[in-house]
Amino acid sequence: MAIDEKQVVEEQAGVLRERVTGRALVIGVLTIVGMALFMSYFGRNLVKNYMPVAVALPFVVWLGINTVLKLFARGWALSRMEMLTVFFMVWLVGNLPGIGWAMYMVTDIAAPAHYASPENRMREVVMPYFPRWLFPEESEAVIGQLFTGVEVDGAIPWLAWIRPLFWWLMACLSLVGAGFFSSVIFYKQWHEKERLVFPMATFPMDMLRQSEGSRVPDVFKNKVFWIGFSFVAGIIGWNIIGYFALSLPPITLFYSTTYKAVPLGHHFPDYFLRVQPMIMGLAYLCPLDILFSFWFYDFVNILKKGLLNRTGFTVGLPGQPAMGGEIAMLESHGALVFLVGWSVWVARGHLRETLQKAFERGRVAHDGAPDSYRTARPGLLSSEVFLSGWMVY
Q1: Residue 316 region by backbone torsions, left for phi larger than 0, else alpha for psi between -120 and 50, else beta
Q2: Over 70: is that where the pLDDT of 188 sits?
Q3: Residue 1 has what pLDDT?
Q4: Mind listing the pLDDT tens digit for each residue in 174-186?
Q5: Measured between alpha carbons, how far is residue 123 from residues 128, 139, 208, 303 in Å?
Q6: Closest Cα partner for 204 from 60, 41, 93?
Q7: Span 148-171, mean pLDDT?
Q8: Residue 10 above 60 pLDDT?
């Protein structure tokens, strides 16, 4: 896909001129509630990536409804800004709590007390160092019933969970706030100077793009889109029918268990091949050089781990060796730390400029960012101070 830079800039400017409306916020909240209920009872596997199906699916549904409204009741149709508001509200709530946060938080903070035993000596060795305000009280009514279920005619001890969940929530919000304010500060550097691309954020813009005078998004007029959609939706629809017609054989092409393991040799990790239509769709929005880097360096990483395993090279303390896989993860962490430091160094001129703008009098331009530098600087500082105090106290 080739979208020229001028077109993208014009679209972003058009979106910035529009305003967030109350009905967009209401629709976003209602969609979040519906998505949360659906994930809790029917589709927990829909939130295990950074563009969850539980986020993309409601957006596509609203896109279809909005297209029908544009054709037959234009006054009721949502604007592009309203659609983006709904999407990003659902994306934030559906992505962050789903991956490693709300899905595991309650059981994680209760697990030390539940699994403590005389054999592992958790109560004597580890738990005395836990801040009591971060964990629920150790009692059968609170901890035991969480894992075994509430007794007959019993009640959920909500009050016992208010304090620990409040402080964990504050830490999570501070972490999200630090990320948000950092993105505000670096936005111009990334967007205008380094010209980074954000494929997952491009997805809703592509779905909403429409030609002048048209009421239907351009993507719905693209034959290639309908061919790809029909292929994927046809297989999924066939399997849905199979849930009710048990004699119908399923098409397992997209199943997580359907993959091809290519052996590369003794001690070398296998190279796995699998068809994932959602990854293919998002990859369509990525530059080819980035896609090649994913494949190439993943293959190099496999060879590196195999050579480390083959030679028996390890690092770490005696009795606690880090093997090839662990060494690769440590190396990746070091590379990430270096990348962050290098990015800050490259952006030093821009950071100096944002600091000057933050202290200028009068109205300060946002440079296209969702907030001002005057707000982002103290916001980032306060988030970092709170997180530091939270981890040290």
Answers
A1: left
A2: yes
A3: 43
A4: 988 999 899 999 9
A5: 7, 14, 55, 43
A6: 60
A7: 89
A8: no
pTM listed for this prediction: 0.77
Q: Domain count of the chain? A: 1
Q: What are the tokens at 28?
A: 């976003």
For residue 206 the two structure tokens come to 């592509």
Phi, psi of 210 (to 5 degrees): -145, 150
Instruction: Report if residue 144 sits inside a domain.
Output: yes
| pLDDT tens per residue, range 314-368 | 888 888 888 888 999 999 999 999 999 999 999 999 999 888 888 877 666 666 7
194-251 pLDDT tens trace:
888 777 778 888 888 888 888 888 888 889 889 988 999 999 999 999 989 989 999 9
Structure tokens at 379: 């916001």
Residues in CB range of 36: below 8 A, 6 or more apart: 93
Q: Does 183 map to a domain?
A: no
172 in a domain, yes or no?
Answer: no
Whether 108 maps to a domain, the answer reads: yes
Structural domain harbouring 120: 104-156
**Euclidean distance between CA atoms 385 and 306, whole angstroms:** 42
Q: Which structure tokens are listed for 296?
A: 């190439």
Identify the CA nearest to 12 among candidates 265, 363, 368, 328.
368
